[in-house]
Amino acid sequence: MIEHPEGVNSPKSASEITVDWLKDVLQNESSARDIVSIEMDKNFGPISLLGKAVRVKIYSLDESNEPKSVIVKFQVSTDKPKREGEIYHLLSEAGVKYIPRIYGTFGDGHLVLEDLSPTHSVIKNSEEMTMGQVRGVVEKIADIQRRFWGDDRIPKDDLSHFENVIKINMEQSWEIFKNRYQTLLGEDAAAFEWMWENAKTVSGHQQSGPVTLTHGDVNSGNLLFPNNRGDEPVFIDWQLSGQRVPAFDLSYFILKELTVEKRREHEAGLLKTYYELLPDHVRTNYTFDNLQLDYRACVTRSMVS
Q1: Exposure class string for 144-166: b at 16+ Cβ within 10 A, else e
Q2: CA torsion, points 118, 119, 123, 129, in degrees to nearest 10?
Q3: What are the tens digits of pLDDT across the range 195-251?
Q4: Where are the alpha helices (DSSP H) in the chain?
Q5: Which of 2, 36, 197, 212 could pair with 104 as two cysteines, CB 3.0-4.6 Å apart?
Q6: Which helix H or strand E contains 242, and what residues bound it?
Q7: Residue 60's closest CA among 114, 28, 103, 22?
Q8: Distance CA 66, CA 26 (A)
């Protein structure tokens, strides 16, 4: 990964991106010196709570030069803005192929990334995701996590943040939610109230056992699939990544992206698929029963969302 050279001004917005700056970032690319102009697509991606992506089209003397475009990502609001670049760096070092290539970092954690939009796209309606694609995501989660099992380089989060999220969500929404779904909830309402009363315990589960690298937000919006409907996903947007129990990403993805009917049919099989991809030395100390218990605990925590 290229670090942006010190002493060079870094753009704080898309309007400050120039040809010379881009040449500097792409200095290790043979085509960098041939760039003659650029064109900004400021409406490329929606702004989120964490970042704004801008697509920069590149015009060179030689039309065959690569890259023809890059994604410049400005971190908008996160407590650790440089984390995403650091995680991309670790993933690249570990040989993970299903992430965009990172050309450089600059400023306060901003990134220049490979533009995959010509070949890959987001599945806008998660119900259109095939079970082959779902399994592909689960398999990649397992592959990432086996590489970073117990790795101390992965940053830990301040668990008080998650504790506060539970309390705020419940304070603002619980009575409305309970009144609307009281008939369906029945005695299960007590489980939600228990989580509210024990927010510290619920949030603490994230770091309560074996930990590994988790993406933190595995959903259809952060997964790019080949436009030919292939099953191999590319994972983007690692701002919320961190060191957590392995079931964190599994539960979030399965709960969020599968309908209730599909989850009931495929949940057990997906957990087995994940577990069988873990190396023997991990499974020796982390049984399938352990995984199931962690998964259920993570599902319980996700319900508050």
Answers
A1: bbbbbbeeeebeebebeebbeeb
A2: 170
A3: 999 999 999 998 988 999 999 999 999 999 999 878 899 999 999 999 999 999 999
A4: 19-25, 83-93, 131-147, 159-185, 189-197, 199-204, 247-257, 260-276, 280-285, 288-303
A5: 2
A6: strand 242-244
A7: 22
A8: 10
